[in-house]
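Hi all, posting the design record for the shared folder.

TITLE: backbone redesign
STEP: 1 of 1
STRUCTURE INPUT:
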């Protein structure tokens, strides 16, 4: 995919928390292709090293639930690559479980990774940013807005992230822009392996989405490039849905309309 001009991000430093696999690794890879100096972080050091080698980045091990650890990782990035222009908060945990099948620790664990982790990453990076002009992006989900059974922990955490984005946009503008990306179901990801493990669930997703397919990691990456590029210079405090129309409504009714036209 070559939708943005080469070297768009030359001279920029980007840090991707949770960037060692899936969607976030795809974002980090695209940043590197466009000339940015990139660092990725996850909990597993071997996975971080492999991901970093794959895309020509620095790989770090840090748990976003541990403020000192993630702050230390970002200090290392700023030392080695220079003040950060772009920070992505994308670490997340998820599993399907009814609220009554979740211990307090199970609920807390997901909120801690997704929501508290995003606070830790953004709070911890602020004085390491290249200001003015820095761009922060949190990876959220449609479940922040539309409730989903078996997802009490993730729905609550992502809803919190959406509001955190808006507060930080107010507090940190005009020097720093803070936005979110809300991916729909994205193919070949750990998330969809966990949330749509069987063919029937996958088909029901396709039927309800205007675009009639799952998204590609590369499509979410292009949204991230847009949001941190000068083209989005007047955009802050917003959530960009990159979801094939998932949030718009139920597209199976659209099929009915086609039949009646
Ligand atoms: C019920 C469960 C459970 C399950 C774990 N727990 N899996 N409870 N059903 N299927 C409980 C455990 O029993 C424990 O509670 C608590 O959760 C913490 O579990 P640990 O294994 O100790 O936690 P940890 O090692 O920190 O691992 C976190 C994790 C794990 C979230 C549980 O799955 C993980 O590391 N995931 C990261 C990768 C990932 O999930 N990627 C997909 C993101 S997709 P007790 O009480 O027993 O101590 C995504 C899609 C977004 O986010 C779209 C929707 C918003
Ligand atoms: P993924 O491959 O499981 O990626 C999760 C990343 O976060 C990995 O790099 C993981 O590495 C890291 N991570 C997990 N817990 C961490 C912690 N406590 N501290 C630091 N790093 C941690 O997931 P994905 O499916 O691509 O999802 C990526 C993002 O998109 C998430 O924010 C998710 O909520 C969002 N999203 C995904 C979909 C989808 O269709 N997949 C839809 C909507 C939203 P380690 O395991 O080594 O820590």
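Okay, here is what came back for every position:
SEQUENCE:
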């Amino acid at each position: 995919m070559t939708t943005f001009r080469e070297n768009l991000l030359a001279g920029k430093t980007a840090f991707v928390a949770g960037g060692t696999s899936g969607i976030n690794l795809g974002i980090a890879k695209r940043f590197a292709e466009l000339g940015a100096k990139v660092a990725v972080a996850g909990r597993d050091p071997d996975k971080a090293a492999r991901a970093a080698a794959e895309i020509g980045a620095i790989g770090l091990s840090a748990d976003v639930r541990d403020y000192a650890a993630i702050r230390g990782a970002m200090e290392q990035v700023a030392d080695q690559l220079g003040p950060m222009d772009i920070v992505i908060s994308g670490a997340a945990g998820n599993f399907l479980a009814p609220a009554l099948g979740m211990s307090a620790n199970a609920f807390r664990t997901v909120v801690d990774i997704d929501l508290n982790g995003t606070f830790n990453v953004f709070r911890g990076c602020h004085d390491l940013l290249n200001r003015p002009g820095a761009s922060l992006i949190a990876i959220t989900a449609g479940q922040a807005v539309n409730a989903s059974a078996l997802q009490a922990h993730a729905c609550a955490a992502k809803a919190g992230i959406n509001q955190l984005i808006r507060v930080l946009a107010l507090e940190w503008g005009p020097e720093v822009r803070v936005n979110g990306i809300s991916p729909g179901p994205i193919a070949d990801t750990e998330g969809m392996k966990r949330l749509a493990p069987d063919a029937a669930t996958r088909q029901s997703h396709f039927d309800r989405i205007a675009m009639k397919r799952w998204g590609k990691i590369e499509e979410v990456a292009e949204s991230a490039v847009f949001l941190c590029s000068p083209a989005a210079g007047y955009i802050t405090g917003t959530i960009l849905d990159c979801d094939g129309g998932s949030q718009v409504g139920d597209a199976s009714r659209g099929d009915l309309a086609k039949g009646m036209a």
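COMMENT: The mean pLDDT is 96.
Let me know if anyone wants the other runs.
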